[in-house]
Write a sequence for this structure.
């Protein structure tokens, strides 16, 4: 007989999203991966410490505290990959449109 998880897949997706957002925020603060890795292990340990909490009320409190902690630590200027939307190279030197060339002077 296998153990059945009391939580839905939506709950698992939410916790994964919270974990990824927390790691991403830490990476915004700590750019060097060798230093960031130690912080990532701390974040993982915090999530693992609450892995076996099955009481919905206490879990809601834990998740609420985690969201509040993340909100209070958000980086004011998060890192954006240069080639992603909002990055410094986004749509820089985009190729010209391949449509027909319109000569404005030919009309006169």
């Amino acid at each position: 007989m296998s153990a059945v998880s009391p939580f839905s897949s939506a709950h698992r997706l939410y916790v994964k999203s919270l974990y990824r957002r927390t790691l991403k925020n830490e990476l915004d603060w700590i750019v060097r991966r060798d230093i960031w890795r130690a912080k990532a292990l701390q974040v993982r340990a915090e999530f693992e410490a609450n892995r076996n909490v099955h009481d919905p009320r206490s879990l809601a409190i834990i998740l609420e505290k985690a969201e509040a902690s993340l909100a209070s630590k958000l980086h004011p200027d998060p890192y954006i990959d240069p080639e992603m939307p909002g990055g410094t190279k986004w749509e820089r030197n985009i190729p010209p449109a391949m449509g027909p060339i319109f000569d404005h002077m030919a009309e006169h």
About this structure: The mean pLDDT is 84.
